[in-house]
Specification:
By secondary structure, this protein is α+β, with helices and mostly antiparallel strands. The protein has one domain (about 5-80): Metal Transport, Frataxin, Chain A (2-Layer Sandwich), CATH 3.30.920. The chain has helices at about 5-10, 25-30, 65-80; strands at about 35-40, 45-50, 50-55. It has a 3-stranded antiparallel β-sheet with strand order 1-2-3, covered by helices on one side. Strand 1 (about 35-40) and strand 2 (about 45-50) form a beta hairpin. Helix 1 (about 5-10) packs across helix 2. The protein is globular. The protein starts with a helix and ends in an 8-residue tail after the last helix. About 20% of the residues are buried.
Length: about 90
C-alpha cells in the first residue's frame, strides 16, 4: 500500500467522516488490499475481498463519494479485517 492509499484509509476511518474522497481513490485502496473488483450494470461495482462481497454504486455525476457510501465502505473494510489504527 502506498502513502496515498494509506491517507485514503485514514480518511475513511476518520471522525467526523469526510465527504470529499474520490471513488477512484477508494477503488485503488481496495485493489491495494487485494480486492477483486467487477463492474456491474449501470453504476454498480462488486468488490470481493477476504471472502466478503459488497456492492457499491459509483457516484455520479460527481466524483466524490458521499458520507453514507463512505460509512458502507468503512463497514466493508472492517468486515474484511482491514482497519486503520492511529499510532
Amino acid at each position: 500500500m502506498n502513502s496515498k492509499q494509506e491517507k485514503i484509509l485514514r480518511e475513511i476511518f476518520s471522525n467526523p467522516i469526510k465527504s470529499s474522497i474520490l471513488w477512484t481513490d477508494i477503488e485503488s485502496l481496495f485493489k491495494a488490499c487485494g480486492a477483486h473488483i467487477e463492474e456491474g450494470s449501470g453504476s454498480k461495482v462488486c468488490v470481493f475481498l477476504n471472502n466478503v462481497v459488497a456492492v457499491f454504486h459509483k457516484p455520479h455525476p460527481q466524483k466524490e463519494t458521499d458520507k453514507g457510501a463512505l460509512k458502507s465502505v468503512r463497514r466493508f473494510l472492517i468486515n474484511t479485517g482491514v482497519k486503520y489504527d492511529e499510532l
